[in-house]
Amino acid sequence: MNPSDDWVRWGDHWQRQPTVDADRLRRRVQRKRRQMQVVLGFECCAALFAIGQVLHLLLDPGLGLRWKVWAGLALLLVAASVYLSLRVRRGTWQATADGMPELLRLTAARARAGIRLAWLNIASIPLLIAFTLLVAAPWLVPSRWRHDPALEHLLLLQVEINGVVLVPLLVFFVVYIRRQRRRLRHVEALLRDYAE
Amino acid sequence: MREGEFAALLHGHAGLLSRIAASYEADPSLRDDLLQDIALALWKALPAWRGEAALKTFVARVAHNRGASHVIGRTRRPAAQGLDDDLADPAHGPESHAQLEQKRLRLQDAVRALPLTLRQAVTLALEGFSQQEIALALGISANNVAVRLNRARKALKDALGESA
């Protein structure tokens, strides 16, 4: 049989598939766009609030130098988070109109960047803990909090809150790195296929 | 882009988009989500369309890119789809309709089982795209498309039990 006959015959079966309701799909896209705008607005508000708080700390004349240094570093952290969030969002949509090899190369580059970023985050957690302990050292001396129930309560609360946040965060980054490596292997295999 | 133009684009390409999404995802609810992602990607990408390719080719390219992003990194192969009972075709009696449905589903499963690099070319060939149009949509050479379609045809014939 002629190869083109096969494609025509199969194409006839293929095109009998059910078709999506276009109006329903358009409404879903409208809803999704609104949701994305709300999330973006919320993220902007949260970033502005965080920057405002840190600037308040920086400009407070009653605070010592070590807290001002801590606030400066926190400001850098907030700025980096906002930048990364915007970069990831832009990258998600950037390649929608590229050819498949370009899309795969960009996906691989993003996976590699994601892995590097996750390792950076994993490394920054003990660094942040060490720096915070250094800044808070005068309040951590046992003779200071043993006879001050309010300070003891505050320190315990900090340990609990940070433990609850940091341990899942570490697990998240490890899982994320494994997932990105798997993605990278898949993309590299596809790129080899396309190069054949 | 105005809402009216976007609605017209979705109406004009609903079949193509549905079939491309179905080639990447067997689960109906995940397929719905993928279709929504594809439509959203089209909304974002369309302002960049300058008419260098036909609109149908551009739409297929964006849809395949989203579909590929959907499956990259996933290790489990999607499950085969069961027979839909609610897809009546008034042009055929119930028996021939069931047979046609079986053929369609077997073809759909066979296409989904192809490696991604063959599947993308196949879905476009089944839509009636020329080799040149497929090359343009996927960003590869026409020769490359011909090789892939040849390999895919053999694989489909084996999978459908049509090998001589």
Topology of helices and strands:
The complex is a heterodimer of chains A (196) and B (164).
Chain A: H1 3-14, H2 22-59, H3 65-94, H4 100-135, H5 137-140, H6 142-145, H7 149-195
Helix pairs in contact in A: 2-3, 3-4, 4-7
Chain B: H1 3-24, H2 28-45, H3 55-71, H4 94-112, H5 116-126, H6 131-138, H7 142-159
Q: How would you characterize the overall build of this protein?
A:
The complex is a heterodimer of chains A (196) and B (164). Chain A is mostly helical and 196 residues long. Chain A is built from 7 helices and no strands. The mean pLDDT of chain A is 83. In chain B, 69% of the residues lie in helices and 0% in strands. The radius of gyration of chain B is 16 Å and the shape is globular. Residues 79-90 of chain B have low confidence and may be disordered. Chains A and B meet through helix 1, helix 2, helix 4 and helix 7 of A and helix 1, helix 2, helix 3, helix 4 and helix 5 of B.
What distinguishing features does this structure have?
heterodimer, A: 196 residues, mainly alpha, 7 helices, 87% helix, B: 164 residues, Rna Polymerase Sigma Factor, Chain: A, Arc Repressor Mutant, subunit A, 2 domains, 69% helix
Biggest β-sheet of chain A: count, sense, barrel?
none
Provide the helix percentage of chain B.
Answer: 55-70%
Number of helices of chain B: 7
Low-confidence stretches of chain B: 79-90
How many helical elements of chain A?
7
Poorly predicted segments of chain A: none
> What gross morphology of chain B would you assign?
globular
Radius of gyration of chain A: 26 Å
CATH topology of the largest domain in chain B: Rna Polymerase Sigma Factor, Chain: A
Q: Could you tell me the number of beta strands of chain B?
A: 0
Distance between the termini of chain B: 51 Å
Whole-number count of domains of chain A = 2
What assembly state would you assign to the polypeptide chains in this entry? heterodimer
Radius of gyration of chain B: 16 Å
Strand portion of chain A, in percent?
under 5%
**Molecular shape of chain A:** elongated
Classify the beta-strand content of chain B into a percent band: under 5%
